[in-house]
Amino acid sequence: MRAALVGLVVLLAAGPAAAYPIDAWKDTGIARLEAFRLAQEGEVQGIVLYWGAQLYTPEIQLRLSARPPFKPPAPDADFTQKLVEVLGDDADGYGIAVIDISDPDAPLYAAHQPDRLQNPGSVGKIMVGLAWFQALADIYPDDVAARRKILRETIITHMGEDAWDGRVERMLMRFEEDGITIGARVRHNSGASIVSARARLMLDEQGDLYARIGSIRIGTTPIPSWVVSLLGQGDVRPGRMRLGPGALELGDGRVARLVAIRTRDQWVDVAVETVSQSQ
Question: Is 265 helix (H, G, I), strand (E, B) or coil?
């Protein structure tokens, strides 16, 4: 029931993998890193990343790893003033600290209201990530390769082992003004093929989410869209595929329902309303 909405939330929440080197696709299994790398080299269309996000693995150094314990110096007045100027008229609403360790022997520290108590939304994510990494360290205290293998190959999803077909080696999804372009490299007995499709997201009279399939190609060979009805599973009709109910039970007696959805350049616009579960 939740497949369509959960998948959509993942797509909307997925942002640049800025915490990883741009060449770390094979080490991490994060395919969008390879998409970012290809975009920087002009091989595919995509956003241009800031210089720091374009660094390759050999260029990234943990500058303070040999200096435990590290204590920040006193705040630098000029650096702090520049930080406050960046915040502008909203400076009073922030508590922020920045440290520049370009020169580890002479770090610069700026702090504006560093004791201000705030609870950013990502704190919860950090706690989950910390628990995950600590569990791996407890299980494999001396085997970093085993930890990396689990991080690279594990897919955590509500759909279990059926979430990803092992024959799909790589996948690309692009949101455009007139729909979605989906491409996949699929492995088979005689090698591998590129399968691509054009689709539009739509809601039916019951509010369920569908993809209306406009064209399908295997390599450069066009395939009639009604063929999907012969290959698909579940509620697949000629020319369209049901993605799932456009409703999600919130667990408090309410239901979140999709009321509109559209795509545009690299975006998906979604309108959702909450109603009583009895309605």
Answer: coil
